[in-house]
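Input (structure):
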C-alpha cells in the first residue's frame, strides 16, 4: 500500500496503486443497453455494415485502414483528455487543501 503524509495524516493511496497495477482501466467504457450511447453505437454499426456490403475488396481495405487510423486518433485523444482531466482534478484538490478554512468565515 502506498501512503503519503499530508500534515499529520497518512493518506492511503489505494486508487493510485490499483491504477499502477493495471486493475483500473479508465479508458474502458461501460454503458447500459438502453442508453443513448448504445443506440448511437448500434446505428453506426448498422450503417457501417450496409456500407461495407457495397464496397469492392480494394475499397474495403481502404475503409479498414481509415477505421484503424480513426481508432488510433481516438485513443490518442482519449489519453490526452484523461491526462488533462487528471491534472485539473489534482490542481483542484491542491487548491482545496491549500485553502485557509477561516478565509470564508472572515469574509
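Output (sequence):
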Amino acid at each position: 500500500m502506498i501512503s503519503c503524509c499530508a500534515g499529520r495524516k497518512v493518506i492511503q493511496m489505494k486508487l493510485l496503486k490499483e491504477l499502477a497495477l493495471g486493475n483500473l482501466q479508465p479508458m474502458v467504457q461501460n454503458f447500459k443497453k438502453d442508453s443513448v450511447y448504445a443506440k448511437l453505437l448500434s446505428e453506426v454499426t448498422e450503417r457501417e455494415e450496409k456500407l461495407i456490403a457495397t464496397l469492392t475488396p480494394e475499397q474495403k481495405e481502404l475503409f479498414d485502414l481509415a477505421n484503424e487510423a480513426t481508432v488510433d486518433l481516438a485513443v490518442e485523444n482519449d489519453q490526452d483528455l484523461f491526462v488533462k482531466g487528471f491534472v485539473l482534478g489534482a490542481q483542484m484538490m491542491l487548491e482545496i487543501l491549500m485553502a485557509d478554512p477561516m478565509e470564508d468565515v472572515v469574509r
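Notes: The chain is about 65% helix and 5% strand. The mean pLDDT is 85.
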